[in-house]
Amino acid sequence: MYTKIVVFILGPYSIVAVHGINGDAVNTFSTKDNDRFWLADHDMLPRDVKNARVMTYRYPATVAALLGGTSSDRILQHAQTMIAELVADREVKDIQHV
């Protein structure tokens, strides 16, 4: 249910975009007028932030739904899972570069 979407990897710095409650990892960071995903659009964030690993993190964020499908986890649990996955991912990348 947790998904990390890596937008691009360029350097040692990480930017992690996390959507809010009832949000979405892609739609939250897309423009409304022309549906541009500004984390990856080369005329937007990548143009201004060099040498960074940019990603967005998807987690089950639905808190209310008519037909179920809501998350029973608390924000702290989502945060702990995200940090653990980011640390593990960074350790794997460090091992691959040795």
- End-to-end separation in angstroms reads 31 Å
User: What Rg, in angstroms, do the CA atoms define?
Assistant: 15 Å
Which strand-content bin applies to the residues?
15-25%
Class inferred from helices and paired strands: alpha+beta
Largest sheet: 3 strands, mixed
Determine the number of helices (DSSP H or I, runs of at least 4 residues). 2
Shape: flat
Strands of the widest sheet, in order across it, are 1-3-2
State the share of residues found in helices, binned by percent: 25-40%
Strands, count: 3
In terms of quaternary structure, the protein is single chain
List low-confidence stretches: none
Write the layout of secondary structure elements.
Layout: E1 3-8, E2 13-18, H1 45-48, E3 52-58, H2 75-96
Parallel strand pairs: 2-3
Antiparallel strand pairs: 1-3
Task: Report on the architecture of this protein.
The chain has 98 residues and is of the alpha+beta class. The protein is built from two helices and three strands; from the N terminus they run E-E-H-E-H. The protein has a three-stranded mixed sheet, with no helix packed on it. Helix 1 links the parallel strand 2 (13-18) and strand 3 (52-58). The model has no long low-confidence stretch (mean pLDDT 75).
Question: Keywords, please?
Answer:
98 residues; alpha+beta; 3-stranded mixed sheet; 2 helices; 19% strand
Produce a short descriptive summary.
With 98 residues, this protein is α+β, with helices and mostly antiparallel strands.
